[in-house]
UniProtKB/TrEMBL annotation:
It comes from the Bacteria. The lineage of its organism: Bacteria, Bacillati, Bacillota, Clostridia, Lachnospirales. InterPro entries: Anaerobic_Co-chelatase (IPR010388). Pfam families: CbiK. GO terms for molecular function: metal ion binding; sirohydrochlorin cobaltochelatase activity. This is Sirohydrochlorin cobaltochelatase.
Length: 274
């Protein structure tokens, strides 16, 4: 069994560490372009910090252990490893999109080690401030320029957490910024596919472009978005639209990765003020 801790930086001579926390993915090709890339760029931006990885999805951790023989730490295990390595100051930086269920659990799990470290600070998820929202909007529209007869439909995950309201708010903000043919939906919450279909039909595009609004283009993108049966792709095709699926997770966008790097900076700045 291999323990998957990819980047340690100056572990032997530093007492500062960054723990990058992701939901995880069992798709290695998208992980390399997203989670790995975010970790690499955070490590390059803060070379004086040892860097550790943790994932929050126990199901994915177990799947990779069984399939690949690779053990990826959860948050508790990663914090235990940092403590054993002599780390004293910790920045916990999630790659989560929202301040939702996974992020709340991450804070509880890492916060349980408060007495074991001199300082633990938390970086923000992707969509935390109005500035974050604006930066994300500009990042995705630059990556996916549209023709007048095209509509871009993003598939978010969705959650029962109250933070789910950000999806509808972001849909509104796209249109408020003049991007009338960009739509935001979710797999598991609101805006639902039913709501999306009504709004897209009112827009009357010739072609619908589907893209994941998730850090990785993993299982939901491969099945719920672009699968052949009972997928968003099949539903839009049945409604008479030409459909193109772009299998590109948010973590592949350089400007999105920069937001996470900046959130580490903000967490460190807050630490210094305190």
């Amino acid at each position: 069994m291999t323990v998957n801790q990819p980047f340690y930086g100056k572990k032997s001579d530093t007492e500062k560490g960054i723990l990058v926390v992701s939901f995880g993915t069992s798709y290695p090709e998208t992980r390399e372009k997203t989670i790995d890339k975010i970790e690499e760029e955070i490590h390059e931006s803060y070379p004086d910090f040892a860097l550790y990885r943790a994932w929050t999805s126990g199901m994915i951790i177990r799947k990779i252990l069984k399939r690949d023989g690779v053990r990826i730490c959860n948050v508790t295990e990663a914090m235990e490893q940092m403590r054993a390595d002599g780390i004293r100051e910790v920045v916990v930086q999630p790659t989560h999109v929202l301040n939702g269920i996974e992020n709340d659990q991450m804070i509880r799990d890492a916060g349980a080690f408060e007495r074991d470290f001199d300082r633990i600070v938390f970086g923000a998820p992707l969509l935390t401030s109005q500035e974050d929202n604006e930066r994300v909007i500009q990042a995705v529209v630059r990556e996916m320029p549209l023709k007048e007869d095209e509509a871009l439909v993003f598939m978010g995950h969705g959650t029962s957490h109250f933070a789910n309201s950000i999806y509808a708010a972001l849909d509104y903000q796209f249109k408020d910024r003049g991007y009338k043919n960009v739509f935001m939906g979710t797999v598991e919450a609101y805006p639902s596919m039913e709501s999306l279909m009504k709004m897209v039909c009112q827009n009357s595009p010739r072609r619908v472009i589907l893209a994941p609004f998730m850090i990785v283009a993993g299982d939901h993108a491969s099945n719920d978005m672009s699968g052949e049966e009972d997928s968003w792709k099949s539903e839009f095709e049945a409604a008479g639209f030409q459909v193109e699926c772009r299998m590109k997770g948010l973590g592949e966008y350089p400007e999105i990765r920069q937001i996470f790097i900046d959130h580490v900076r903000d967490a460190l700045a807050l630490n210094e003020k305190e």
